[in-house]
Design a protein that fits this description.
heterotrimer, A alpha/beta (394), B mainly alpha (328), C mainly alpha (295), A: 394 residues, alpha/beta, Rossmann fold, 13 helices, 42% helix, globular, B: 328 residues, mainly alpha, two-stranded antiparallel ribbon, disordered C terminus
Chain lengths: 394, 328, 295
């Protein structure tokens, strides 16, 4: 080793020490305004699930601004402390710890994906901070005894599967082909599809998967066509659900009805399919189809209000994912309004909350159910003339 | 181990021991302890990688795969077979080592970009297996409710306990690697890095040494993976994909490949940069991260530790002069 | 009759020719500089997104939008060489890998700001439904992709065999010092290689967007598959890249069809690893040539 190596390596150690002790400049600001009510948020604003995190972030920011404009919560201004998880479980874990310990927030909304949510369940329990996940997996809130502090506002996959199977049963479909994307969303849907099919007298004749960045799904659909199913169900989010529609059309398989997951519930997908999506069926939360609802439907007012405000502010249509953030943030605000920034009281408040009219349904939380939704909170819709229409049951 | 290394080690141990009190005193950074636990876990992973890349001169884009093999071994053995976590841990290391040996024997005959492609391909295959073997790994939905670690009957709770466990392990691994470097094996590795043909001509069994280092780096990565598993208590394949292999490589590069201290420095620094310090940039974070990397690779290719031996003036004038000796 | 296999052939050839185009992009730069440019996949992504921008933002007709996208990405390639790669002439392989990865992160990040995170679509180059061949459907756009690949391969071979620039570029690859001594402007050739490779990537991007949509983070995976094809075919071998790209695409399609769709990527990669282990210089590379390379 050279003579210079000694002082230099010593310097490396000093640098390491300095780096570790580095006090972050932005840190002290959070403490400055004491009477602010904080709401912590962790969304996948970038990375693989950015299509979830982006509208969630926009919605959360919109609501908080709205509340502050109308005088805050009981006179307290609200501040959203939002961290991007980059769709990364490790990062999300650290972000939630930071929100709980460092920012000392009374409640956390998010994360966006099931994987990230499951990676922070333990943190919420250990830190005793209420967390309202925007992701779907039922494992996030079950077993409920071990999920004392954890809630979720996204309906479970079993609700969507149940609704679509109800519809298939009504249409006399017995042989179903399943195609799912190999990520958390698709895998969770696949589990429920395979688990629930026998209960509805449906036989799964094909079970295909593909990657989230695949460019062509004709191979999978060709294989499915060989099995002669009476219906196909595709379970994915992002570009692949559009590719499935395109391949289904190109292969001339329109005579076999194509069902999609609720993930298809954005008008952009209909546009992206370039007219190919006609006839695609899916179960959707009412947030996506506000204008189709009858005026006496209890959710109609909040949905139309959200739809309009979001479109005015961001010049783009709402998505069902933003709806999750609406439900989570609005719940957080109602809790803060009712009991103030006290973690334990907020938790108890959430557990007893019923009749909360949200974007995704009328929530009925209880000690046994930290989700509060059911399959009745969904509607079957069909793509007709480039837009959603309520699907005819008879 | 030379005196210098011993002194640095002592200083490092003292700094690390004092760290929790330091951050507590400055309340604003109390959560840094959480970040440090992950940084420590990644250090264990990267020490092996540093030996492999910096000393033996072999590229590996499969480190996240071995990290994952350790993590999933621990996860599956404890969840599905109710093993004791401490017994599952060495199993994961053995398994990762075994896989590394099987892959390493043919792969390490390759060079440069071909070796990069082979390790990259292997890493992606392992990631796909994690995704597809739903019965064992839980697939993309992940493996939940993994038990935590307990020491002498008391469960390991809280960041402080984890911090000392993880960083204690890092120090032990560091001592082991430093000793290795100053043994016959270490000298042979550096000979391989500098001129493989010559090393071979001198009678050094280069192939065997390369595979051995590969196996060692895999076993260390697996150990890190086991800690990760029990710390987070949840696993999904996303934590072990190609992006992570690249991140591990970057951590080692940023600190400086030619030095184990560099690996530690780079890992800690990049863990903080990636998870903490760039958050103020919000949406622009990814651009800042990319720019830092680009700047580092262009102007400081030997990593932060190289700042030591170049007088500042000379460094400003000839930013690339230091790389000439370390090409290929 | 069972027409499934034909459908798999169509699917495989379409994706395979994209892999081939990406692989050719790698090869052009590698041939001249011995650098593997990990930002290659991002050129494809940018090509697709820029074409969408020129068509829908600037209302250009398709041929003009195509040309504009290719030129714009070519300019990005030039800028990358001039302002980034040239700063690192003497860097080690690893540094170069990091540099190109960092640049790809920057490109991806910028695309995220420019276009957001949603996928975009482009109308097919020619309207009309799929063509049917004995029960198997072929999209007209797939023919465009295949045609584009064929044209690129032919033009490139002509360029490197016949034109003085092409020969000069190959000379730079063989021995930069000797090339400089006989008067070849090596720097210009390096610049040219980045321009060409970015332009080809962009063309591939425009061509597949009507089939597969395009969004900001699509580049990495395309880059990975293309790199696989380049290595499998033997780095620097254009015909090798073409054959290997098509082989990878076909292997994936047939695995998805007959074996397991979840493992299709893995099976393609296992084939690649086996090929590397038994023929380390790639299917079409010569071991003598490989020894002359620095990396």
């Amino acid at each position: 080793m050279k003579a210079t190596a000694r002082w230099s390596q010593g310097m490396a150690v000093v640098m390491l020490a300095v780096a570790l002790m580095w006090p972050c400049a932005s840190v002290n600001q959070a403490r400055a305004a004491a009477e602010e009510y904080l709401i912590g948020a962790v969304f996948s604003v970038t990375g693989g699930a950015s299509f979830l995190g982006e509208p969630e972030k926009k919605t959360a920011e919109m609501i908080v601004e709205q509340v502050n404009k109308s005088g805050g919560i009981n006179g307290h201004p609200v501040k959203l402390v939002l961290y991007d998880t980059e769709t990364d479980a490790t990062k999300c874990n650290l972000a939630v710890k930071k929100l709980a310990k460092h920012d000392n927030v009374p409640i956390i909304v998010g994360p966006s994906t099931s994987g990230e949510s499951l990676a922070v369940v333990k943190v919420a329990e250990e830190e005793k901070v209420p967390l309202i996940s925007c992701a779907a997996s039922y494992k996030i809130v079950s077993p409920v005894e071990e999920r004392h502090w954890v809630y979720k506002v996204a309906g479970s996959d079993s609700h969507v599967v149940g609704k679509e199977f109800d519809y298939m049963k009504a249409k006399g479909i017995k042989k179903l082909a399943v195609m799912t994307v190999s990520d958390g969303f698709g895998a969770s849907g696949r589990e429920e599809l395979l688990r629930l099919a026998p209960e509805y007298g449906i036989q799964i004749v094909a079970d295909e998967t593909y990657g989230p960045k695949d460019t062509d799904l004709t191979a999978q659909l060709t294989k499915i066509r060989e099995q002669k199913p009476e219906a196909i169900i595709n379970w994915s989010v992002g570009p692949t659900q559009v590719l499935a529609v395109k391949a289904w059309r190109d292969l001339g398989m329109r005579n076999i009805p194509l069902y999609q997951s609720h993930g298809f519930g954005s008008r952009k997908n209909i546009e992206l399919a370039g007219g190919g999506a006609e006839g695609v069926l899916l179960a959707l939360a009412r947030v996506n189809i506000g204008p189709l609802l009858p005026d006496n439907q209890p959710q109609k007012a909040v949905i139309m209000d959200y739809t309009k405000r979001y479109a005015d502010l961001y010049k783009e249509p709402i998505s069902s994912f933003g709806g999750h953030a609406w439900d989570a943030v609005t719940l957080a605000i109602e809790a803060l309004k009712a009991v103030g920034p006290d973690r334990a009281k907020i938790r108890d408040y959430l557990e007893n909350k019923t009749g909360f009219v949200g974007q995704h349904g009328v929530f009925k939380f209880s000690a046994k159910d930290h989700n509060g939704l059911g399959k009745d909170d969904l509607e079957m819709v069909v793509v007709k003339n480039g837009d959603w229409a309520l699907a005819p049951w008879k | 181990m030379p005196v210098t290394d011993r002194r640095i080690l002592l200083v490092l141990a003292l700094v690390l021991a004092a760290f929790p009190w330091g951050v507590r005193a400055v309340g604003a950074v109390s959560h840094y302890l959480d970040v440090m636990v992950f940084a420590g876990i990644f250090c264990i992973v990267n020490l092996g990688l540093s030996l492999l890349m910096g000393f033996a001169g072999q590229i590996s884009l499969a480190q996240a795969a071995f990290f994952g093999i350790g993590a999933y071994s621990s996860g599956i053995l404890t969840v599905q077979f109710a093993w004791n976590p401490w017994a599952a841990m060495p199993m994961g290391m053995v398994l990762a080592g075994l896989v590394a040996w099987l892959v390493g024997v043919p792969a390490l005959r390759l060079k440069g970009h071909y070796l990069a492609m082979a390790t990259l391909g292997f890493g992606v295959i392992v990631h796909i297996v994690f995704n597809e073997e739903v019965r064992w790994t839980g697939g993309p939905s992940g493996l939940v409710d993994i038990p935590g670690l307990s020491v002498a009957g008391t469960p390991l709770r809280g960041e402080i306990a984890w911090y000392y466990l993880v960083w204690g392990t890092v120090l032990v691994a560091l001592v082991f690697c430093l000793n290795l470097l100053h043994s016959r094996v270490g000298r042979a590795l550096r000979a391989i890095h500098q001129e493989e043909k010559a090393a071979e001509a001198m009678g050094i069994p280069t192939a065997r040494y390369k595979v051995q280092v590969f196996v060692l780096s895999a076993a260390l990565a697996a150990l890190g993976g086991s800690f990760y598993t029990h710390y987070v208590a949840f696993l999904n394949p996303g934590s072990f994909d190609l992006m992570w292999s690249i991140r591990f490589m970057l951590m080692v590069m940023v600190g400086g490949m030619q030095s184990l201290w560099g690996a530690v420095l780079g890992t800690v620094l990049m863990t903080f940069v990636g998870n903490e310090w760039l958050q103020v940039f919000a949406d622009y974070e990814v651009l800042v991260y990319g720019s830092i990397l680009l700047g580092m690779a262009l102007f400081l290719p030997d990593g932060l530790v190289s700042l030591k031996s170049i007088p500042v003036r000379g460094w400003l004038r000839t930013p690339r002069s230091s790389t000439e000796g370390t090409q290929r | 009759m069972d027409s499934a296999w034909l459908q798999y052939v169509f699917a495989g050839l379409t994706t395979g020719s994209i892999y081939a185009l990406v692989a050719i992009g790698y090869n052009i730069i590698y041939n001249v500089t011995e650098i593997i440019n990990f930002a290659q996949g991002e050129f494809v992504m940018l090509g697709g997104l820029l074409a969408v921008f020129f068509m829908e933002g600037c209302r250009l007709p398709l041929p003009l939008a195509f040309a504009a996208a290719v030129l714009a990405v070519g300019a990005i390639g030039l800028a990358m060489e001039r302002f980034v790669i040239r700063q690192a002439r003497n860097a080690s392989v690893l540094s170069l890998i990091i540099i190109t990865i960092a640049f790809s992160i920057l490109l991806k990040g910028s695309a995220m700001f420019g276009w957001g995170k949603d996928p975009y679509r482009l109308e097919p180059f020619t309207a009309g439904g799929p063509l049917l061949f004995g029960g198997a459907a072929l999209q007209p756009q797939a023919l465009w992709v295949l045609g584009l690949t064929a044209v690129v391969v032919v033009l490139l071979s002509l360029f490197f065999r016949r034109s003085i620039y092409g020969k000069a570029m190959l000379a730079c690859a063989d021995n930069p010092n000797a090339a400089r001594m006989v008067g070849v402007p090596v720097r210009t050739m390096v610049l040219l290689s980045f321009l060409l490779s970015a332009a080809i990537g962009a063309a591939a991007g425009v061509a597949i967007t009507p089939i597969s949509l395009m969004e900001y983070d699509r580049g990495a995976l395309l880059g990975l598959k293309g790199f696989g094809a380049a290595v499998l075919g033997g780095l620097g071998q254009f015909s090798g890249a073409l054959v290997a790209g098509l082989l990878l695409g076909l292997a994936e399609a047939f695995c998805a069809g007959y074996l397991s769709s979840g493992y299709k990527d893995a099976i393609a990669l296992v084939l690649l690893l086996l090929a590397l282990f038994f023929k380390p210089e790639g299917l079409f590379g010569s071991s003598e040539a490989a020894k002359l390379k620095r990396f």
